[in-house]
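During the reporting period the student researcher (J.K.) took over the structure-prediction task from the postdoctoral fellow and processed the backlog of single-chain submissions. One of the processed entries is reproduced below for the supervisory committee.
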Amino acid sequence: MQDPTHALLVIDVQNDFCPGGALAVPAGDLIVPGINALMDDFAAVILTQDWHPAGHASFASQHPGRAPMELTQMPYGPQVLWPDHCVQGTDGARFHPALATDRADLIIRKGTNPAIDSYSAFFENDRTTPTGLEGYLRTRGITTLTLAGLATDFCVNYSAVDAARLGFSVTVRQDLCRAIDLGGSLSAACAGMMRAGVTLA
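J.K. obtained the following structure tokens:
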């Protein structure tokens, strides 16, 4: 029997993060069948979707002379400059076509503020502006989360750490995630998740 207090949170399984996309995560598409199969074990399934307006401040194209993957300083702290990706309404922003989106109870769109990036499913990168996901989970009586998706070292990591910080019991299914691994970001993310009390399974 499905546990009504345990939800599956699927992070950013979108075309731009899969092979051929603008910010492709290596083998990002290979996790889709496993995620679809896992959905059957959960009473609640929540999907997140990166959903940037064109000209988002985190895009390298908005910073003359800067290249994708460079680090810059924003008012809210350090920010990786990304290739333009997951622009609202584009094919790249759509979920991977094989993802079983019909199983979703809720889709959270993040990164919609043109001035602030949003890695976490819970907060924008200022670490204080909420997406509304916490309130949804609380009102549903959900206390335990299993995470899967893209990318392990960025949006999955930030979402897992924030969930743990908010008091949820959190497991990350590493076999159903893939990483960008930018300058050692994967090992740093895994260490940070474990410090926060996240279970890496």
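The committee noted the following: Helices lie at 32-39, 133-140, 152-165, 185-195.
J.K. will present the remaining backlog at the next meeting.
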